[in-house]
């Protein structure tokens, strides 16, 4: 093998390593991991009575969900499923193309299908969320999904168990001002949309945790 061939091979190897590193730098990463070390307190007769509590980090629902989203993509995880927004009344049916059909189930049994639809689609390497504002308004709001939060909600543990919530957001929430009443922070400056599985309790209790998958800075 002559010097020119060796030099060419060396350049090809360098280019391959350089591109690989650049690709890895651009890959999604999990950040903002938050956990509580204690399991929810469970009394006899509660939903989780006698069920084991999940505390191993690698076994936590959000850890597994984020890893699956990173591996298979948003389309594989969220498309082709029915979701809700933290209540039983409104359902979000996402088809295989990312179109979101919104259906309201009123307490009196009335079912209303929104004429206006939402959508999740990919453009120039970024995911875009199209959110219908409401069933009467013809306007829609679009934003780039920069972050996906996964959070375990244990607020209903006494009645129904705990659930998994996903939030699509375009950036971090910022403190806009502080309340004049109790000096509590007032957040804003972030567009977001929540998808939840509140009709599907987790099989076992888990420590509260929240993980954010950063898709783009």
Features:
217 residues, five-stranded antiparallel beta sheet, 14 strands, alpha+beta, seven-stranded antiparallel beta sheet
Give me a quick take on this structure.
With about 220 residues, the chain is α+β, with helices and mostly antiparallel strands. The chain is built from three helices and 14 strands. The strands form three sheets. Strands 2, 3, 4, 5, 6, 7 and 8 form a seven-stranded antiparallel sheet that branches. Strands 1-14-9-10-13 form a five-stranded antiparallel sheet, covered by helices on one side.
Question: How does this structure look, described?
Answer:
This protein is of the alpha+beta class and 217 residues long. It is 19% helix and 36% strand. The chain has helices at 3-26, 61-72, 74-78, and strands at 29-35, 81-84, 90-94, 99-105, 111-113, 118-123, 126-132, 140-144, 147-153, 163-169, 174-178, 185-188, 192-196, 209-214. It is globular and about 50 Å long. The termini are far apart.
